[in-house]
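Incident log, support desk, overnight shift.

02:14 A customer reports that sequence design results differ from what the structure should imply. Their input is reproduced verbatim below. On-call engineer (initials T.W.) acknowledged and began investigating.
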């Protein structure tokens, strides 16, 4: 069999599936942005990588609508795919992320291939991320803008054969006419790697200080420190946590870029903004902001965590929450739909009001002071991930089975 993967930041969500097919002896080819492909080549041995370069759009195209960037990228990707076709490559199945426009013309280049989309998110102006946080209200024209953002997604869906998305909530964001052909299968968590560790140690970067499970360690992790992941709420919770738990060490992991939230003026970050807002209210001798850290250090941090806070808008659920649960953390999660799909309050974690520092601090204090009495909750958290989100035994087999069914449809 021959498989084609298309993702601007390949491997992205396709790392495990692409490697699975390559190790099984199939020919696996991937297309991504050249700079990203070169940087991540070592992650995907045995896969043929082709990079495309994205020339700048004209000013006229940029000013037209949000549809233009997607079509612009789609044409470049179609050119790369056409070059593969001329070389004799004919994929049996194509896997492409629904975003950025990459999938738009792939069926035109390879009409006989089955196209399966990774359906990460469909934008809604009501009841989702856009109108969730009154501190960052939607723009008056947000409904118009979201329709234009959804336009290339709908075009890709119309050209596709199947879709896959990680959670039921994400599936439900898509129009009902398309949701029926989108299967819910998570990307998967490597629970053999992400495990509890009672003897773990975490070294505070730049110091000789080691934290262990004997310490009161409150953790917060996000790729970037921004409102979509509740960074503003968490920072406003820190003074209350410190008042109640004077021995606690608070460790915050994340960069200063912006992944999803409104961008700030050049040179500004949400971390700096919240630091200024809370000046004099936080004892920073007991707060560590690590920036981004290596994955092994991140796992060590989860293993020493007394209480792990995960907050999110109604948006894509972070892998980090499931990894925290797999590591045996008690997660205090926001009472938002993506989190509630996984955490049942009082059973495998705790829930709190996204906007309430007092509620979040209540749950953190409950966890830290309960100590070993919450062992059953920690075990239930890990069991949830092992049973429902395990990479090797649950998710990857389901993904492979979905592909098998996709190919059977092609043969029918």
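02:41 Re-run completed on a clean worker. Output:
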């Amino acid at each position: 069999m021959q498989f084609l993967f298309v993702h601007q930041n390949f491997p992205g969500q396709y790392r495990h599936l692409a490697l699975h097919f390559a190790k099984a002896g199939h020919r696996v080819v991937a297309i991504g942005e050249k700079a990203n492909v070169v940087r991540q080549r070592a992650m995907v041995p045995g896969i043929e990588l082709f990079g495309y370069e994205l020339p700048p759009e004209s000013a006229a195209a940029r000013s037209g609508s949000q549809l233009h960037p997607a079509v612009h990228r789609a044409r470049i990707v179609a050119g790369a795919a056409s070059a593969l076709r001329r070389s004799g490559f004919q994929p049996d199945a194509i896997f492409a992320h629904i975003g950025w426009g990459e999938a738009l013309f792939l069926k035109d280049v390879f009409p006989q291939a089955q196209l399966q989309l990774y359906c990460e998110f469909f934008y809604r102006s009501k009841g989702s991320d856009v109108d969730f946080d009154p501190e960052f209200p939607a723009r008056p024209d947000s409904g118009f803008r979201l329709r234009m953002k959804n336009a290339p997604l709908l075009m890709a869906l119309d050209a596709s054969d199947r879709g896959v998305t990680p959670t039921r909530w994400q599936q439900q964001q898509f129009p009902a006419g398309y949701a029926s052909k989108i299967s819910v299968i998570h990307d998967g968590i490597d629970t053999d790697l992400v495990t509890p560790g009672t003897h773990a140690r975490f070294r505070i970067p730049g110091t000789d200080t080691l934290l262990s499970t004997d310490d009161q360690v409150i953790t917060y992790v996000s790729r970037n420190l921004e409102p979509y992941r509740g960074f503003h709420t968490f920072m406003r919770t820190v003074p209350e946590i410190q008042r109640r738990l004077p021995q606690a060490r608070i460790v915050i992991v994340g960069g200063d870029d912006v992944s999803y939230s409104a961008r700030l003026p050049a040179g500004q970050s949400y971390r700096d903004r919240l630091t200024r807002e809370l000046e004099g209210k936080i004892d920073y001798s007991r707060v560590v902001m690590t920036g981004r850290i290596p994955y092994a250090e991140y796992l060590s941090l989860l293993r020493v965590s007394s209480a792990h806070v995960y907050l999110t808008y109604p948006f894509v659920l972070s892998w980090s929450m499931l990894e925290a649960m797999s590591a045996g953390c008690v997660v205090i999660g926001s009472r938002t739909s993506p989190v509630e799909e996984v955490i049942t309050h009082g059973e495998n974690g705790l829930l709190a009001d996204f906007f309430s520092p007092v509620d979040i601090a209540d749950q953190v204090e409950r966890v830290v002071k309960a100590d070993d009495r919450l062992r059953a909750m920690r075990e239930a958290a890990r069991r949830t991930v092992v049973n429902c989100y395990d990479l090797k035994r649950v998710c990857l087999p389901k993904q492979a089975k979905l592909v098998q069914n996709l190919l059977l449809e092609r043969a029918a």
